[in-house]
Amino acid sequence: MWNRLVTVLGTFLVLLGVSLTAHAADNAASGKVKTVASFSVLGDMVKNVGGDRVEVTTLVGPNGDAHVFNPTPADARTLASADIFFVNGLGFEGWMERLENASGFKGALVVTSGGVMPIAMRAEEGHDHGNEADEPDQAEAEDHDAYAGQVSDPHAWQNLFNGKIYVTNIRDALIAVDPDGADVYEANAAKYLAAIDAEDQAVKAAIASLPKARRKIITSHDAFGYFGNAYGLEIIAPEGVSTESEASAQDVAKIIRQIREEKIPAVFLENITDRRLLDQIAKETGAKIGGVLYSDALSDKDGPAPTYLDMFRHNAGALTAALSS
Fold it and tell me: Less packed terminus of the chain by CB within 10 Å, N or C?
């Protein structure tokens, strides 16, 4: 239900934004289309599709944690002058409505996950992506009702098939606001979609090469559900632990028992989380630290995952290196 609502809402707001923002067409004619992306993964996608016709500002940058992001007045000013605001949706940007209201944004809001089939995660895992959780809005309430105590996992970009849906939504939104650039956006998107297809096959082959008994890992927080479902890896994240909360002694004890009982070979850090918890777990269980995975944010340009596709190449390489023997 929530996915359908997001799709309808994204489409409606794109059309509404076009009708309300004649300045978008002016920008496309005289300069670049001003776009804002909520976090670094989306920013990279928009750059790939938009090319030289777009100016991209990313709110939560490389190695940034969107879970705890607090928009600033400067962010509001940036958004106020934008033609398009690209967001993930699925409850990922809990701060989005507050920023939008503060900025007076009148452009096109594009929910890039529109059309994705969401997977569910348990609400009691404490994985809250919002900073304003006092009163859920109607959409959030319907989201919870639809899954009977579960919420949609927002990390849909962690499946490259879903990444293609994001790209087509970005392409269509840019064409709607800047129809003169349609040929450019179509060509850029086609090239990018082909590259995503190729990387998808590479990741599948890499994970398939692992012994089945070793396709199981612990990660810092529950961000790899789509990845695990798509590529045949069992991902276990500490229950009750997210980037917004600390693990209790009971949480840690449970994870340690699970690693020992299930003989989980490796635990992986994430670039957006504190490593001390998993260092402790690895020390007490003998499981090795398999390296750093990139989940909710890319690396900086000099790091191992500066782009969306680099993120998958790095993560697949780290996983296969740690789990192959």
Answer: C
**φ/ψ of residue 266, rounded to 5:** -150, 150
Instruction: Determine if the pTM surpasses 0.85.
Output: no
- Which class for 19: exposed (0-12), middle (13-18), buried (19 or more C-beta within 10 A)? exposed
Q: Which residues are CB-contacts of 56 (< 8 A; sequence separation ≥ 6)? A: 35, 36, 37, 43, 46, 47, 50
Q: What is the pLDDT of residue 246?
A: 59
Contacting residues for 93 by C-beta, under 8 A, at least 6 apart: 38, 39, 66, 87, 129
Give pLDDT tens digits for 242-278.
455 555 677 677 778 878 887 888 778 776 666 677 7
Structure confidence at residue 84 (pLDDT): 98
Read off the tokens for 173. 């939104």
Q: How many CA atoms lie within 13 A of 226 on its CB side?
A: 22
The span from the CA of 39 to the CA of 272, in Å, is: 13
Coil vs helix vs strand at 87: strand
Give the count of beta carbons closer than 10 Å to the beta carbon of residue 2: 20
pLDDT at residue 88, as a whole number: 97
For the chain, residues with pLDDT lower than 70 are: 1-30, 122-150, 238-248, 251, 271-275, 325
Can you give the residue ranges of every domain in the chain?
2-196, 209-323
* 280 within 8 A of 218, measured Cβ to Cβ: no
Adjacent-strand bridge partners of 85? 36, 109
**Which among 129, 150, 71 is positioned nearest to 245, based on CA atoms?**
129
Give the residue carrying structure tokens 């705890």: 68
What confidence score (pLDDT) does residue 122 get? 53
Of the candidates 258, 260, 324, the one whose C-alpha atom is nearest the C-alpha of residue 290 is 324
Instruction: List the one residue out of 110, 116, 107 whose CA is nearest residue 152.
Output: 116
Annotate 124-138 with DSSP letters as a single string: GG-----S--SS--H
Name the superfamily (CATH) of residues 2-196: Nitrogenase molybdenum iron protein domain (3.40.50.1980)
